[in-house]
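Sample entry (499 residues):
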Amino acid sequence: MGEIQAAVANLSALVEKGPYRPAHDLAYELLVEWLLETNNYAEAKRYATQFIQQHPKSPSTKKIVELFNSHAIHERLIVPIVPLQEDSEKDPTELEINIDDFEKKKSSSLAPHALGILLPFSGPLAPFGKKELEAIFLALDTPAPTNLENKISEITALGLKIFIADSGGDVAKTQSMTNNLIQKHDVALILGDIAFDTSVAASQICQERRIPLVSLSRHPLTTNLGNYIFTFNPSFKSQINFLVDYAQNTLGHKRFAILYPGHYYGITMAEAFKNAVLKAGGTVRSEAYDAQETTFTNVIKKLAAIKCLGKRCDRASTIPKIDFEALFIPEFAKLAYLVPALVQADVLVTSSPQALKNYILATKIKKPMPVQLLGLSSWNDKATLQKIGDKANGAFFVDAVSFDESPEHIKFAEAWERLGHGEPTTTEVLAYDATRMIFKILAQDKPSREHIQKSISSFDQQIGLLKNIKFSPEGELLTPSIGFTLTSGASSVVKREGT
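Predicted structure, serialized as tokens:
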């Protein structure tokens, strides 16, 4: 899936950059085909419509239409699913009904205070899903339920009827559970999921049914699906703009490099960072590595123009030739391996006095300039930062939460630790604040789904731990960014948005 998503991202970048060339026809065909195969129906429809409108006489237009017909997408995208009787044995995903009739039928039986929660409680993402649920119920001041695997459970908290569904981190299961929450339990709103693919799957269904969904993922596709989908995760574009602005205008850097994993997230972040740098008048180059990579020797050799690495190399051929001042690494999962790999290749990425001294002795470079490391909110994990230690002193990353900045944050951290989870992360804060916002909206007198959608769209206040909560017209969470720097494996605030 990572390779397919990377290919989709590359093709998207190709077809959206002018001018039009004949090669775009095949690119659109492949793009639509792969989006359909990965169940990204709304995005496939967007690209297909875009191409057909612009090039109706192209032979590729017929092929793209055939692709849609073979997947029956024209039915899946425009009609919802009929609720079944309990004794029905027919697969509900095969039934259809006119959307207007469906909405009229549902409006009379809507349970206005029913909240659906969609998270993985089974599969490889289960530990993350269970933590998110604990944060949600911490916001409701109610103990989180357990034993939720492979089912939908019902609980009442603070007057809310809550239906909790296990997505399993699986697209097909997510689709089934989302339909079940909507059809059988009449939820007014759904909170979740956290994974990329499942969040898009749930978002597609909710947008077609006009069910507000607050996604805890940050998949870029969810922001293009429609006005009923809200991404409760800070806009990566705003964070990247904050990052580039600080690096250029505060630190004075103009020459950048990017080291990123070749999957959808990595490519998306790298492209957004590159665009921000170029827009601000800087220069940038990039190197990608395989998403499954565990050693980074070859990619770092390219990045640093190193001729040779290893015991058999002479010293002159191992010295890097750095033509950039700052290095952006969107990766989180392998950050603790990437930094030591850079150090081993004599790429200086720390301002530690002892490291500078050792570097001068090893390379004979009298006045070395450390490369400024830059990262996103995924870096804000104490366990990972402690592993890095002083190898990346002076690194700068951006997030929306600082846990030591107010009594409320300290109180939350203490409550989280009492649950046995250790230090909280930003993801738990987002789940907590999303729940606080949802509770405030659903506590109103019988809000309709349309009213809920409008209330979220216009929301603009502090309700929990974030400084402020509001959404862009595309449904992305807008909350002030905070800049952190690293010193000996610990982070501290050095910059706040607007100051």
